[in-house]
Design a protein that fits this description.
The complex is a heterodimer of chains A (463) and B (432). Chain A is built from 11 helices and 16 strands. With 463 residues, chain A is an alpha/beta fold. In chain B, strand 6, helix 2 and strand 7 form a beta-alpha-beta unit. The longest helix of chain B has 26 residues. Classes of the chains: A alpha/beta (463), B alpha/beta (432).
Chain lengths: 463, 432
């Protein structure tokens, strides 16, 4: 029905990643041979068109900047980026004077799980009933009619990870979505993306449970909670492995331990809400103790204090540009955070955690660039764009298929009215898998979710 | 006593001795006053006041010259709503002095004495150009004893972010009231009750104005509000104090317009997500709106018609606008330039956006005779920028508050500098 056909390399990657995802539930821990992967992606996107953007300033996401360059998309993929490209039958878009970048990726969003309007009825992000709820999956809370999806699209966001909240030590699985609102979450799931698992340090878990006279009530209680969970998960993993070799009976399938064991097996990526440098350092030790890697610290307000440790453990820091002081563990936030992390050779990401912030991740990035320049750290546009594209894709385990404008990758592309790091610039056209998903100047390509019908948003007001 | 007098004299003497004149030369100056924008301008500052601004003005002999060639100069920024100086850490750590609960004060609750001019927030925001702020009390949920806030949060004041002890520029400039969704939980659950409480309170204040003397003599039945509350409400009725109403829904704004007209109250709307739907009515009623230009999500049912074009629509209709981001109007009040830039990108003329973050708030709160623009006679709140102040990569080079060149240092710059030098292997506590 749709014309997207993965290129060879990409297809291979997709097959491998999908196999891992399938194995997760159907092979290693699944209910039995032949069972289909539950909640599998049914994403098909929109019908793609062969499109040639011409004469743009192109930030490739690989650190390069090309002037007067063209970007050719076909069959949902980037075909080529270069000068003087030609393509028969392509829709040609004059992009002279404009800038082109990979689609923006937000690694930290609660769209759909804390949907607008923010009523109690929509509070679906925290299963705050037990400190370790690895068994819950954010995708089962996602409401695809959250108006925030389409406003994020207007900000150039083509993919995002939807995470559970931070009330719990382990909050559950996160899910990576393509930003084409569907009828259900399966329609939106990024094909082949590995699952994430949300963990949280610090104030939130100890406040939520300590307030109930329960553990954890302190940061040391937090750490005991993580370690106990990993001990249980390792035991589960070992028993399953032994049973596969005919030694002993396989334990009853346990959703909680299945997810945790998925992390220990390297198939599920840890996304760890953690503000303070000392706590991030402790979390890195826990990861070493149990043999997993933390894919990214989120809200890493003090990451600038431990850039070297982050680089060493291959852990990204996902940060705001300037949020600080709203709680104690955010007191040491500085504007230069991401730039100092980057300078230390670690992977820097700008994230939103906000339905408003997600619409302007380019602007948040610009604030850091300007602050860094004042202290002699030169962050060029071609470098900075990676904080919201390539590096974000890396932390989500999808960088082989998206996040840069390289041939064969998914054609998730933004055409900006100018330099994306200017406050006056807007995303003019947003392509997802080679299809025009948003056009600022064409109301027929301004999607409106069900909830917004009959409101200002439906007449373009909110966009 | 004599020693004290000598000390005071010494301070006065030093003050006079330091009454230097400063001349900022060569910049593009956006005065936001009648002189408009002046290229290659000179600004003369003496004793903390602007004495002259224009082209071809010679700096007086002995003046300290500040070469701002190629730079952009604006008035100091004025954040029109927030609780800067009233809060250090917002959640679970404190201190937080913005919220008052219980019935001992309502309309008469004056927040000014809680202002902490040494708060870390002051330096962090002023080095990015914010020189004046409205400090406003706000409502909060019930405390541990079940005490709640009131639909009247109390009286807001204008503060400067300078180093002097005279932080409060003008006390009690606005009475904060919570209407619509923000007020229903303090009024038994219905917004109709909010209006009844409002009406009852102002009626009582009128009654007190007439019969206050009888009350003092014990010849009038008790009022349900304290004298302090009634005095505050009277100041609103007299037009000395504005009513600053937290309200978003269009229907609530319609009710508010009628109420303001009926009682002759000067009203300012804060929030105003659906105010754009009533732009002409608000202009006719001379009601100003403080809004967050980027608030385009229907985050509750009062905000269903949120609109990214609110700022240009309101301004085009002649409504006075100012900007305060609902999420970050305090710790990150400095991001007011981002609000202005985004409003501009959506169609608000650049000059009007600058006015919205300088002169308009000063007018709203009755301090425009002293601040808000670069005009002779006004306090020298001046910011020198290396480029367009709305651009996200542009940060202030130097900020002056009442003529004082403030140190461009904050707790955040100190943290930054400590961790910037990655070659320093000593423990952080031993660095700088």
């Amino acid at each position: 029905m749709h014309s997207r056909q993965p290129g060879k390399t990409v297809r291979k990657i997709l097959v491998v990643v999908t196999a891992i995802a399938v194995c997760l539930t159907a092979c290693d821990f699944g209910p039995g041979d032949g069972a289909a992967e539950p909640f599998a992606s049914r994403y098909t996107g929109l019908a793609s068109t062969t499109t040639l953007l011409t004469g743009a300033t192109v930030l490739t996401g690989t650190g390069e900047r090309l002037e007067n360059a063209d970007v050719l998309m076909a069959d949902g993929k980037i075909v080529e980026v270069g000068m003087g490209l030609k393509a028969d039958g392509a829709v040609v878009v004059d992009a002279s004077g404009k800038w082109v970048t990979p689609g923006v990726i937000d690694v930290h969003s609660h769209l759909g799980v804390y949907a607008s309007p923010n009523t109690q009825s929509h509070s679906d992000g925290n299963e705050a009933t037990s400190p370790v709820t690895a068994e819950v999956w954010a995708e089962h809370s996602v409401w695809p009619h959250d108006p925030g999806f389409v406003t994020a699209l207007a900000g150039g966001v083509t993919s995002m990870q939807i995470l559970p909240g931070s009330a719990n030590l382990v909050g559950g699985r996160g899910v990576t979505l393509k930003n084409i609102p569907g009828r259900n979450v399966m329609d939106m799931k990024f094909p082949g993306a590995p699952y994430g698992m949300k963990m949280a340090c610090g104030e939130n878990p100890k406040r939520v449970y300590g307030g109930r006279g329960q553990s954890p009530a302190t940061r040391m209680g937090n750490v005991a909670g993580y370690r106990q969970a990993w001990i249980d998960a390792a035991d589960y993993r070992d028993k399953l492995a032994a049973a596969e070799k005919g030694k002993g009976e396989a334990p009853k399938r346990d959703l909680k331990l299945e997810t945790l064991a998925g992390v220990l097996n390297g198939e599920i990526l840890v996304h760890n809400h953690c503000y303070r440098a000392d706590e991030m350092s402790v979390m890195i030790e826990i990861a070493k103790e149990f043999g997993y890697t933390i894919s990214a610290f989120h809200h890493a307000v003090e990451a600038y204090k431990i850039g070297d440790l982050l680089a060493e453990s291959d852990t990204c820091a996902a940060m705001w540009a300037d949020w600080w002081g709203f709680k104690m563990e955010a007191y040491d936030g500085i504007r230069e955070n991401a730039a100092i992390v980057d300078k230390a050779g670690a992977c820097a990401i700008i994230h939103s955690d906000s339905g408003i912030g997600i619409q302007r991740l380019n602007q948040e990035t610009a604030k850091v660039m300007g602050a860094a320049a004042r202290v002699g750290i030169d962050i060029t546009p071609e470098h900075a764009i990676q904080w919201i594209t390539k590096n974000a894709a890396k932390s989500l385990g999808i960088e082989d298929v998206v996040g840069t404008l390289e041939a064969g990758k998914m054609a998730d592309v933004v055409l900006w009215s100018g330099n994306p790091f200017s406050v006056y610039t807007r995303a003019e056209k947003v392509y997802i898998d080679g299809a025009l998903a948003y056009d600022r100047n064409d109301a027929s390509v301004n999607p409106v979710t069900d909830f917004s019908l009959g409101t200002a948003a439906a007449t373009g007001g909110a966009q | 006593m004599r020693a004290l007098i000598l000390v005071l004299l010494a301070i006065v003497f030093v003050g006079v001795a330091q009454a230097e004149t400063t001349a900022i030369i060569g910049a593009t100056v956006h005065t936001v006053g009648p002189q408009g924008t002046i290229e290659n301008a000179t600004i003369i500052v003496t004793d903390g006041r602007i004495v002259a601004v224009g082209e071809n003005i010679a700096a007086p002999a002995g003046a300290t010259l500040i070469d701002a060639s190629g730079k952009v100069v604006t008035p100091g920024l004025f954040t029109p709503y927030g609780d800067i100086g009233l809060v250090e850490v917002g959640f679970s750590a404190g201190p937080v002095d913005r919220v008052q609960r219980g019935d001992q004060f309502t309309a008469g609750f004056d927040i000014a004495d809680a202002f902490n001019r040494r708060s870390t927030l002051i330096a962090i925001n002023r080095i990015e150009g914010v020189t004046r702020a409205l400090i406003a009390p706000s409502a909060g949920g019930p405390d541990d004893s079940g005490n709640t806030s009131h639909i009247f949060s109390g009286l807001a004041s204008v503060a400067n972010l300078g180093d002097g002890a005279d932080s409060i520029d003008r006390r009690a400039v606005a009475l904060v009231v919570n209407l619509g969704e923000s007020g229903v939980s303090f009024a038994g659950g219905s917004r109709a009750a909010v209006l009844l409480i409002l009406r009852q309170a102002f009626d009582e204040a009128r009654d007190y104005a007439i019969h206050g003397d009888a009350y003092e003599r014990g010849q009038h039945s008790d009022f349900s509000y304290s004298v302090a509350d009634l005095e505050a409400l009277q100041s609103v009725l007299a037009g000395d104090v504005a009513m600053l109403a937290n309200v978003d829904r269009a229907s609530d704004i319609e009710v508010l317009i009628a109420f303001s007209r009926e009682y002759g109250i000067r009203t300012i709307i804060r929030g105003g997500v659906e105010a754009w739907m009533l732009a002409d009515e608000l202009a006719a009623a001379n009601i100003a709106v403080i809004l967050a230009p980027t608030a385009n999500l229907p985050s509750n049912f009062d905000r269903i018609n949120a609109n990214l074009k609110s700022a240009p629509i309101l301004a085009a209709a002649g409504v006075k606008i100012a900007f305060a981001d609902g999420q970050s109007h305090t710790h990150n009040a400095r991001n007011i330039t981002q609000s202005a830039g985004n409003a501009t990108a959506e169609g608000l003329p650049w000059d009007e956006a600058l006015r919205a973050i300088t002169l308009t708030p000063a007018e709203m709160y009755g301090v425009a005779d002293r601040v808000g623009s670069i005009e002779p006679g006004k306090d020298a709140d001046i910011v020198i920028w290396p480029g367009d102040p709305f651009e996200l990569t542009i940060y202030a080079d130097q900020v002056f508050i009442k003529g004082e060149s403030i140190p461009m240092i904050s707790r955040q710059t100190l943290l930054r500098d400590r961790y910037l030098d990655t070659d320093d292997t000593r423990p952080p506590a031993y660095r700088n």
